[in-house]
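Quick look at the format.
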Amino acid sequence: METLRISGDEKRALIALMGDGSQRSLQLGTLGPEGTSSEYVARLMTRLLGDRGRFGIVLEETFEHCMDALTEGRLDLALVPHAYAGINAFYMNPLLEPSIVFRGSTPEYGLAARSDFAFREELLFTDTVVTHPAPIPLLEYYFDRPVKLVTTTSTSQAAGQVADGLYNIAITNEQAARQHNLKFVYRFSPIPMTWTVFSKRIEKEGPR
């Protein structure tokens, strides 16, 4: 099963961003809090390139906050999945540019609940499921009836709201479910997807 696949050209492009010194530390931003699929893929990416430089991973509340930090110089790079509906705005931003694009699978996704919650499939159609907007189509592929939903900023946040008792069921990933002591009551699968690492655009001087 695919976990992470970065081509040689993309690796070289990313290494070039580190500069000549292999010990240069780069701040890589992505969606938090801890337990998101974005954090999971960011850590896989930095481990793959760990021998060529050190990375600090910064978790922001939204991808838009990542881009603000990137344009303001508080981040060097920002990782965004192509499943994020608002990614087009980042490509259109004249202050940003895509540095590399690669494939990477998320942790396994599923429906998660607290261990003391007696889940039955029919509850999906009477209870409320909390989720990030991106994985909502999973429900259409696995169930044949509409599900009542409320959205939040990340899969990890969804798991946390179930753990706190605000909701009983979340669409989340295995990492966030484990972090918040939830159990999967229905499993989907890992999601293979593509990702972009953005950097701040550097204007190059033309010939005088």
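Next, a different chain entirely:
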Amino acid sequence: MRLHTVLLGCGLLLSSVAMAQNGNGAGQLKGKIKMKQLISDSAFAWFYTGVNKYQVNENMVNYIKTNKDKVQLVALVNTTDQASKDLLTKFYKVMILSSVPEESIHLYGFDNSGSSGDATADGYKAKRLPVIIVMRDGKEEGRISGTPKETVEQDLAQIIMKMNRKEEK
């Protein structure tokens, strides 16, 4: 019983230290974020709910899936902002169904002042959040800023189609 209490106390201490290092508490993450952080922490229950709720356009997802090895994706978000939560959950649902490898997705958190604490993330020069950037060979091919024009998967597919047309020329 005593060991259980000590382990519980250590777990709570470690989780509070991790939260303090990764953000400003209350579900805000800064810097590089791994999807498992969003899945495993109860502060991000919205992530699991949003991913499961979103209904995708299968045709667009299939197009992304056939081109998944050509791109790297960067998402810049504020995990306490509703627009970022909405876009991020839809984005990850599309990434999961498209079988995009986790190594091809780079997710960065920003705080309410627009700081990420990460030089790589700051280098993407986002004027507003959320942003999803499609990269190929280290070069930006397009981005979704704020709300998608159509849907996340359709906007991503259009960026990839445009990128493929440039490649054919």
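Residues 2-22 form the longest helix (21 residues).

See the schema section for token definitions.
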